[in-house]
Amino acid sequence: MDELYLDNIDEYVNDHNKIVTYKWLSLTLGVHVNTAKQMLFHYLDHKRKESSAQLHATYLVSGKSVDKGQTSHKVSVVREEQLEDCKSKMSLIVSVHVYSVQKALLKDSGPLYSVDYDAVKDNLKDCSRYSAIRCADAVPMSSLELQQVREPQRAPTPEPEPKKTATNGDVANGTSKPAAKQQKGIMGMFATKAAPKNQDADKEVKTEQKEDAPVVDAPKSKPAAKTNPMMNFFGTQTAKKPEKSVKQEEAAQSSSTAEQQRQSSKPEEKPKAAAVEAPKTSKKDSSKTKRIEDSDSEDEIMEKKKRRRIKKPEPDSSDEDIIPDSPQQMETKEKSPSPKKKKEAEPVSHTHQSHSDIKTRKRRRVMKSRTFLDEEGCMVTEKGYESESYSETEDDFKPTKPALKDPVPAKLSLSSKQDEKKSQKKTSANANKGSKQASIVGFFQKK
Amino acid sequence: MTTLTRQDLNFGQVVADILCEFLEVAIHLILYVREVYPSGIFQKRKKYNVPVQMSCHPELNQYIQDTLYCIKPLIEKNDAEKVVVVIMDKEHHPVERFVFEISQPTLLSISSDTLLSHVEQLLRAFILKISVCDAVLNNNPPGCSFSVLVHTRDAATRNMEKVQVIKDFPWIVADEQEVHMQEPRLIPLKTMTSDIVKMQLYVEERAQKT
């Protein structure tokens, strides 16, 4: 071994002020770790003899130590001053060697780690090429073996997913089959109330959940929950339910029927192979599916958006389907099956509500007067029915409202002679509408 | 391959964030290594994947954070020329000055995907160098204190005043006494050059410390 290494180490330690660990030295000079340890030892020895520069060293001590009766193998990095102390505490010393040499007295061991960090990082693939630790069986896997290991890992993970959706296997395999099943499911829901159809509906919804894009996730979850109550709806009308769930069903009814129809058409879109087959099977059902197939998926999204827009104002104006307006709105936008269902649902909903005990907000039609300026710039008050939300606790206030409205039209009719006749006509016409409304003469009589 | 200019403030903020984080770690480490405060208040924490010593004392930490908070806008606009950590003895005469000279290229060109990991590696080397700096420095007298000075280009202090008002952390123009040192010895510690910042660390030490 030539003596150049001494100069190298000297340069690192003194000129660069580096911490020279044996691992770093072996990687830098390309020598086995044991050689590096010996180099450091020699260097230290040499310098100590010369006593030129002040050097500090750390040592690695490895051995068996008995602690409270338990024997353990202990490996520790200690400063030179603590070396003898540490050696004496060990019952059996396996190895002692120089860990690092540096000029500075290190206050803590952090920098020792930092030194090796970058060196190891640069040589990540073969950082142990100079290492003394060897195992014949520890051989890196070839790429083939790696693939084999990874594949079984991938296979178990998809398995849990299909378990959630029972008919996933069927859906995956068949293309026309699920379409037919879904059609049956929809028709089954509308036609009969048998339990198997329930399952079909559930399956349909679940497969939809699996296949559909996450965009429709939120509304989808509603149908999943609602199909069962809906089925029960049609099945048994005397079923007792809390009114809230009834109301939610009713509110979602219109939406759910629309969504189910949408979703039924969606799975037809997704498997592109089935797109050709699906039109043939679904032509009977509704012209809507036909329409959707003709359009692109983008149009489908547009339609969904349209329906969403429609649906959103609906809950605002009509949470519960007592009001006849809402079904009329739905009729214009949806196909024939849904309004029929609505009309069927309404009488059922009435009966359900009568059973309710829970106080919730309802909507009802109330006689209200609207004051506005007509063409001639005269203020006119008209009475008309408007829907309004109320809760049961407000029932007490109902009768007072119509009484207060009477003076208003009376005052306005006196405002201008020209409009007297007009307004009188209007007020009289309005007066005829309500049964609780007092006549216009009543104002003068009460004086 | 993107070329960004100084006007791209987002990137300027990123660089300022990186530098301020580094300066915080460096200041803590200097206080630990130079024994300005007893080592009991420091605990090992991890930064850039290596262990570093950071202080646990809340007021000290808050002071350092407030200092760097005010420096950050200067770094963003490349107005800070030097950030100096001055260690002073009991009479408030500086005994050591750790000078971080910072300069940022006006035209930042990010030419590699591994830019930030490269910068991290360079900052790690700085940290390591600070850890071993007491090999080249004489011991400080007991009872030292420290302060942070910023040398700015031109009249950038106007911007600083805005930040001061917000943070209620006043900065004052340094005394001559604090800035100048008698018979300084210059010891360079580390230099780094990267696409986003160039930094140099050297220590000015007073020849006679005690």
In short:
Chain A is α+β, with helices and mostly antiparallel strands and 447 residues long. Chain A has 22 helices and six strands.
Number of helices of chain A: 22
User: N-to-C terminal Cα separation of chain B, in Å?
Assistant: 54 Å
In the CATH hierarchy, what is the architecture of the domain at 3-123 in chain A at level 2? Alpha-Beta Complex
Largest interface: A-B, 19 and 21 residues
Mean pLDDT of chain B: 83
CATH topology of chain B: Cell Cycle, Spindle Assembly Checkpoint Protein, Chain A
Going by CATH, the homologous superfamily of chain B would be HORMA domain
Subcellular location (chain B): Nucleus
Pfam family, one (chain B): HORMA
Protein name (chain B): Mitotic spindle assembly checkpoint protein MAD2B
Keywords (chain B): DNA damage, Nucleus
Structural features, described:
The complex is a heterodimer of chains A (447) and B (210). Chain A has 447 residues and is α+β, with helices and mostly antiparallel strands. Chain A has a domain at 3-123: DNA polymerase delta, p66 (Cdc27) subunit, wHTH domain (50s Ribosomal Protein L17, Chain: A), CATH 3.90.1030. Chain A has 22 helices and six strands. In chain A, the strands form two sheets. Chain A has a four-stranded antiparallel sheet with strand order 1-4-2-3. A two-stranded antiparallel ribbon of chain A has the order 5-6. In chain A, strand 2 (56-67) and strand 3 form a beta hairpin. In chain A, helix 9 (176-191) crosses helix 10 (195-211) and helix 12 packs antiparallel against helix 15. In chain A, 24% of the residues are buried. Chain B is an alpha+beta fold and 210 residues long. Chain B has a single domain (3-206), classed as Cell Cycle, Spindle Assembly Checkpoint Protein, Chain A, CATH 3.30.900.10. Chain B is 36% helix and 31% strand. In chain B, the strands form three sheets. Chain B has a five-stranded antiparallel sheet. Chain B has a two-stranded antiparallel ribbon with strand order 1-6. Chain B has a two-stranded antiparallel sheet with strand order 2-3. In chain B, a hairpin with a 2-residue loop joins strand 2 and strand 3. In chain B, helix 1 (9-33) runs antiparallel to helix 2, helix 1 packs parallel to helix 3 and helix 2 (58-76) runs antiparallel to helix 4. Chain B is globular, with a radius of gyration of 17 Å. The model of chain B has no long low-confidence stretch (mean pLDDT 83).
